[in-house]
Amino acid sequence: MNLIDLIKSSAGNLLRNKGRTLLTIIAIFIGSFTIYLTLGINTGVNNYMDLQLETVGNDQLLAVYKSDGTVSMVPGSNLQEYDPEKNTAEASMITPKDIEKIGTIDNIHRVEPIAALTIDYIQGLTDSKYQLNAMGSAGVDLDLEAGRQINNETDEYEIVLDQEYIEPLGFKNAQDALEKEVVLGVSAQATGEQETVTAKVVGVRNFSFIQAGMTILNQALSQRVQTIAEKGLPENLKNQSFAAQAYLEDGLSSTQIDTIKKELRELGFQGMTIEDEINMFRLVINAITGVLTLFGAISLLAASFGIINTLYMSVQDRTREIGLMKALGMSRSKVFLTFSFEALLIGFFGALTGILAAYGLGNVINDYAANTFLEELTGFELIGFSWSNTLTVMGVILLIAFLAGTLPANRAGKLDPIQALRYE
Question: Which of 245, 299, 322, 372 has its Cα between 20 and 30 A from that of 315?
């Protein structure tokens, strides 16, 4: 018998007990379906993260935070004991002296504060006023639905709105909001006296994990808002920011950037690139999908025992047949291959149906998500499919099926033809 004949024979043998074979295939189907769908979610989310990084398009920026206070913007900072002599809020803020200190590090050519802006409200074309989460420009290019990036070199007050403010402020759409004016209400922290500032809308941003949910102000507007907010404060509480943006020299390697981060730590700061911030989201997603993949792996482990059981029973049912084939000259290796192919076919059909079902459901979920809860996330395909995932899942399952089938296949190959023919 040649290889094709062996495969045909194996397929025919599986059909002898359709119920037992079908149940084993279903067990593998569940595992492959779960794993492939989970890998698809992981791929979709990570592809969107990569898109965010490509959209920003600037890997030469370093967000710098104070790391010697009890409050830190950076995960993983060391836990510190409470010191009654130390003002926690002040300890976590970056001062003009800190800006100068950061600027002394090699390969950093400019440092700008990222102001902690406190704005009472924003008002557009209607009388309604809304609370506003805003921050100064951190030097990154935003993913815009309409308009342009803000200009930090101009003295005019410019603002890039988050898309959720468009309709509430009375604009028809993002395009309609461009070049229109909005009013910001800002109160002095010391006196409570409120002033208004008029700014021009130059852009509307899509949702992004970079500065998520924030409306962005240009440098001139940020300084004006901060000046109003700091009226009446002691000098030592003015010109503070929650972070700073360090502009790196062009063409730095990852090793050089790591060196800069090390020097920052020695000075009491912590630096993060945009990719570092995105990778925090990756870690969470990878952890969640890792757990789901583990459930799929457990299902495959159970299915592997199903394959062993199915083939062992098949060997037992066909003992006399195996003895006859060996008596007629069929070699031990061909008997082994016959049962191995049966295991591989069970694994193949289980994996194939699981992958196809996951692919079909994934497309349905993507269409639903794009028109509902992910409608605002431009370019976000929740479940992403790739040939690498397909081949990985198929290859792993076939390997598991083959290994599971080796025990019964080896047993069948070792059967003595005389003893097998006497088997009742």
Answer: 299
Residue found under tokens 């809860």: 373
CA dist 232 → 107, 228, 236, 237, 238 (Å): 38, 9, 12, 10, 10
What CA–CA distance (Å, rounded) separates 321 from 326?
Answer: 9
DSSP β-bridge partners for residue 196:
185
**In what order do the strands lie in the sheet containing 241-248?**
108-115, 241-248, 61-66, 269-272
Taking a C-beta distance cutoff of 8 angstroms, is the pair 301, 58 a contact?
A: no
Placement of tokens 């006859």 in the chain:
324
CA distance 222 to 191: 20
Mean per-residue pLDDT, 109-119: 83
What is the helix (H) or strand (E) element at residue 101, kind and residue range? Answer: helix 96-103
Per-residue pLDDT reduced to its tens digit, 213-243: 689 999 899 989 999 999 988 887 788 888 8
Closest C-alpha to 340, from 258, 264, 419, 399: 399
Phi, psi angles (nearest 5°) of residue 128: -75, 145
**Sign of the dihedral defined by the CA atoms of residues 108, 115, 178, 203, in that order:** positive
Closest CA to 244 of 278, 212, 267: 267
pLDDT band at 293 (very low <50, low <70, confident <90, very high): confident
- Of 230, 133, 128, which is closest to residue 183 (Cα–Cα)? 128
Residue for token pair 């406190």 = 118
Say whether 169 sits in a helix, a strand or coil. coil
CB 196 within 8 A of CB 184: yes
Contact status, residue 349 vs residue 10, Cβ threshold 8 Å: no
Angle at 379 between CA 373 and CA 380, to 5 degrees: 45
Q: Which amino acid is at 97?
A: K
